[in-house]
């Protein structure tokens, strides 16, 4: 058969370079990756055979074999699983289909210094390519179950690989690594050594549910029978399904290795959650909260969901029906006893038991977060930093669990030592006379901190929650109140903070309103395109003006969000509030009273409006005109 040579896709080449130059110091993990792929291939074959009894495949002894050869310096990882067709090898092995990995490579390219690369690389399972950390040539021989012809793939990891059709390949896949010379100083061990292989399998792959056997240790002593014949192959792993065992029996490390296998993450999880449901519908679940949010968590096609097993048989990855979208970062396994092995996605969507499982698993995750919050504030803080923005989606979409969600939600705040607060804590420390829970939304903590809306609150020491996630704009309206206290945006509606001792009396205020009535009406006309009302403010102490919305209006951020999603939204005209104690506003009022020709003043009114827009981090409607008017006024001060 002719051998064809192909070039690696750009990203694949890049990843290979990283592997060859080994940015990752712990090279042992290549074996975990290859065993993990082999295990997946066995899962897939068993399922395919269950679903299609005409499939011409041997499923009588599914297993993984590791074969070492000290003389040839090779290590082979072999499975008799699903295998790959010629086309699949080209598609799956020559390219990087996983968009996450491609994005990771871009990130890596952008990271200037080499430091931190290990952290970055840990976000992605590098899979098959990790073989090139320890080998200078890799050969893969595979035949897809049910097909006659096999394929041989070979590469030295440089720019190209070869593909060749072969007639005599066994079912499944074998990956042969032509090992680099051992270099223990650089953690490159001798991977033909039986004890090393045993150690790695025990450490990383013990839970794999298929037997991992050690065969044909060419060149090593002590592994043969008395008569010189090879003894029966030794199974290296215990194959214990961790989720079926009680927590006391399993070490943290074992849980973590399972997480890394199913979560495609090289880091430890933040939290391990176990659930054994007994009764009429039995199932076991082992869930993990990662310690870092994946970079594509907010992408529409983020692959979410748990692995579903039925009576220890792997059924599917990414089973979305088991947890709501706002817990999409949770990884794990659910093994149900009473589902059919033929269960399909369509059936899952309608199954009553699956809905019950979802409810129970959701509650379990939320209660684990609650315990984390009470028992380990630091871990909870990590959780919330990484996943808070996603969890808050549940406040909108899952009214049934709203209370549980609010109990684990925390906010940045203007008060408090550690800077975050729960709604419960906020309400508990609300002073007498304050009826509402105040919050402000914005793009960043900085823009909020300097917002004019905060002035009166800061001056009176009233606590304000600082909400900076896009989802905050939406859930606050959906939730509306907490323990009978309304959630009130300090940038919306009229604010009555009650009288301060040094404040004007009612009479003085009325007089002031009268004094300004002319100016306010005139400004409203001048600015009618942009504002629906101009009034005196109770929330400003330093700034001359700010913009506020009516309680029912969309905020500018929400307006932008809807537009970004392609929805038509009419432009909301807001209310311009003026600070009657500010010299500029006072002066404007006086000039308004004295002058006949107010053309100059209308420019000042426009500028005042633009300043209010700028102060909340917005952008004047016509920046060039704004600059011209501003420069003109500055010039007059010289
Ligand atoms: N032993 C195998 N048998 C059958 N298919 C395999 C085997 N090894 C790899 N593949 C196929 O090649 C694909 C790419 O493998 P690779 O290890 O690069 O990434 P992955 O396993 O999909 O992702 P990750 O490494 O992030 O878990 C796999 O998804 C699988 O379809």
From TrEMBL:
Q: Which part of the chain is the Histidine kinase/HSP90-like ATPase domain?
A: 26-183
Q: Name one GO molecular function term.
A: ATP hydrolysis activity
Main location as per UniProt: cytoplasm
Query: Record's Gene Ontology CC terms?
Result: cytoplasm
* One Pfam family per UniProt: HATPase_c_3
Annotated region (C), positions in chain: 561-638
Which parts of this chain are annotated as the region A? 1-345
Subcellular locations according to the entry: Cytoplasm
Is Cytoplasm there in the keyword field? yes
Keywords from the named record: ATP-binding, Chaperone, Cytoplasm, Nucleotide-binding, Stress response
* Residues bound to ATP: 33, 37, 79, 84, 99-100, 123-128, 173, 345
Q: Specify the superkingdom.
A: Bacteria
Can you state the subunit structure given in the record? Answer: Homodimer.
Stated role: Molecular chaperone. Has ATPase activity.
What PANTHER family is this protein classified in?
HEAT SHOCK PROTEIN 90 FAMILY MEMBER
**Recorded family membership:** Belongs to the heat shock protein 90 family.
The protein in question is named Chaperone protein HtpG
Organism, by scientific name, is: Streptomyces calvus
